[in-house]
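Issue 218. Parser rejects a valid record. Input:
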Amino acid sequence: MGKHISKVREIDVAAVAGNATLAAAADRRAVERCKDAIEKLGVVHTPVVGAAGDGRRMLLSGQSELTALRELGVKKMDAIEVDVAGSAETSAKLSLLLISLWDRPGALCEGLLLQEALGAGASRAEIQAMLGKSASWVSNRLSLVTRLDGNVYEMVKNGLLDPRSAQEVARLPAETQFAFAETAVREGLPKSAIELLVAGYNDGSCPCAVKAQMLSDPRAALGRMADRRRAVKADRHNESPPPDVIDEIIKSTRQQMAALRRMLSSGSPFEAVVHRESLAGLKAGLLELLAAVSKLVSMGEQVSPGKTGVGHSG
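Output the parser choked on:
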């Protein structure tokens, strides 16, 4: 291009104010991975910092990197510095642009950034064009933010609850979210367990007693849900096959029996000795089958039309 456009500057790590919205979505594991990468390779993803007119520097992207650098005791860092003087709207739009280019921080954080941008004066149409997203995508992200209980959001901000777990909690009725989130944090439940519990709670067939247990003893509730799934699976496994399937099996069995009878009737004593164990097993199986067939035939005779006075007249 023949044009030098680099805006990378060396700045004091301590001089950069963290981004509360990005911090709320920060993943502790991501910070640890950043620390490991920095020690081996240096900063891989350069943080982006907005320079305000009063000299303040605000983080626009790279919360995990900034946190990792601080915890490693690094005093100076390279950052991409952009001018956001006097415009909260500019800052909000840049944050949105950055999450559209890099790994997304999650639906909750995206919704918070969208809310921030709208509050700063950006229009939905501008946001949609900037991110290449539909109106429904924007609405869904904003809806997630408005559905989430304020106390649960504070837990996310304080690092008590993982933001992706909070996304699951937001699917619960508003009046149960905080109690559930408190219990989930106390029990140290992973996102996978929270997802199962939320899905179970929202299942219309879930008993009220199990729902109450999800708020007081979620691990026990998970056990009951697992037992219920196993019982349903067993019921499905034990379901009687359709009559047409039974007829097909009977037809096939009779054909196989006829073929085997012809072969055995023409066999020699030597063959009888060779196949003795197999024939003994077949005999035992046929006796079991005969008992089952006899039982069903007897049951059928008890409810047959002849027994109820309908059908045969003599």
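Fixed in the parser; the record now loads. The chain has 16 helices and five strands.
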